[in-house]
């Protein structure tokens, strides 16, 4: 199966061996995304809403680089550090998915850096092969 790597312009070096996105058979898989700057430092420390917006903007950049829009996102995997941030995360999330919502799940867990409050991975169906 042909596949292609999707790396938006200006993307920093990943923290581990992965790419921001992979497109295969018209399906875009967006790696778990945290609120990192280009040097992998957490931004918006202590602010779950701002971190969520940063994460979703980063995901949007991957989706758009692959030729899609956020309306093409069909599934989100959401990881949060503390259930106390659930409302703030959902408030921002709703801004990025105002119409029909993608399927999703949300779990509480530890994240790769202590100041990270939310991580999201996405799947978008672009409807065309890589």
TrEMBL record:
<protein>
    <recommendedName>
        <fullName>3-aminoacrylate deaminase RutC</fullName>
        <ecNumber>3.5.-.-</ecNumber>
    </recommendedName>
</protein>
<comment type="similarity">
    <text>Belongs to the RutC family.</text>
</comment>
<keyword id="KW-0378">Hydrolase</keyword>
<dbReference type="InterPro" id="IPR019898">
    <property type="entry name" value="RutC"/>
</dbReference>
<dbReference type="InterPro" id="IPR006175">
    <property type="entry name" value="YjgF/YER057c/UK114"/>
</dbReference>
<dbReference type="InterPro" id="IPR035959">
    <property type="entry name" value="RutC-like_sf"/>
</dbReference>
<comment type="function">
    <text>Involved in pyrimidine catabolism. Catalyzes the deamination of 3-aminoacrylate to malonic semialdehyde, a reaction that can also occur spontaneously. RutC may facilitate the reaction and modulate the metabolic fitness, rather than catalyzing essential functions.</text>
</comment>
<dbReference type="Pfam" id="PF01042">
    <property type="entry name" value="Ribonuc_L-PSP"/>
</dbReference>
């Amino acid at each position: 199966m042909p596949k292609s790597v999707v790396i938006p312009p200006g993307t920093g070096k990943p923290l581990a061996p992965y790419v921001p996105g992979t497109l295969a058979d018209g399906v875009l898989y967006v790696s778990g995304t945290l609120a990192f700057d280009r040097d992998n430092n957490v931004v918006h420390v202590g602010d779950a809403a701002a971190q969520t917006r940063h994460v979703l903007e980063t995901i949007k950049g991957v989706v758009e680089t692959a030729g899609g829009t956020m309306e093409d996102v069909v599934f989100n995997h959401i990881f949060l550090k503390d259930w106390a941030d659930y409302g703030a995360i959902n408030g921002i999330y709703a801004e990025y998915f105002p119409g029909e919502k993608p399927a999703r799940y949300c779990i509480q867990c530890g994240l790769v850096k202590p100041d990270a409050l939310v991580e999201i991975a996405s799947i978008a169906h672009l409807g065309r092969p890589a």
